[in-house]
Amino acid sequence: MQLTAKLIAILPEQSGAGKNGPWKKQDIIVETDGQYPKKVCISLWGEKFDRNILRVGNRLSISCDIESREFNGKWYTDVKAWKVESVNDSSSSQPQHEESYSPPVFQHEGGSVIADDDCPF
Questions:
Q1: Per DSSP, what are the bridge partners of residue 44?
Q2: How far apart are CA 118 and CA 113, in angstroms?
Q3: Which residues make Cβ contacts (< 8 Å) with residue 104, sequence separation at least 6?
Q4: What is the CATH T-level fold of the domain 2-118, as seen in this structure?
Q5: pLDDT in tens, the chain (121 residues)
Q6: Which residue in 43, 38, 11 sits closest to 110, CA to CA?
Q7: Exposure pattern of 61-85 as b/e (b: 16+ CB <10 Å)?
Q8: Are 44 and 61 in contact (CB under 8 A)?
């Protein structure tokens, strides 16, 4: 899935150790364009992305995978980015650099996005 959105929040980085070794995750909150904008929490895994493009207010083009899973009778949805690029805005006078990100592939139980019906925002 591809989406273009404005970065509105950068959550604290999370890290830990799993059966496949150490991991790092950065969650960001973006707001989509359109008549009815939506806020989406997106997870960036690993260290293969440029943190310089992660500035509140920046417009990003995000390629991501959406996956849901069931745990104890409830469904949880993860939005995992595999490519993040800065969007060049013609109204901006500042040059923006295009960077991309490719995460490692492994299972993770934390950092889920709550389904729309239960979402607090």
A1: 26
A2: 10
A3: 23, 45, 46
A4: OB fold (Dihydrolipoamide Acetyltransferase, E2P) (2.40.50)
A5: 999 999 999 999 999 998 999 999 999 999 999 899 999 999 999 887 888 899 999 999 999 999 999 999 999 999 999 999 999 765 444 444 444 444 443 334 455 443 344 444 4
A6: 43
A7: bbebeeeeeeeeeeebebbbbbebb
A8: no
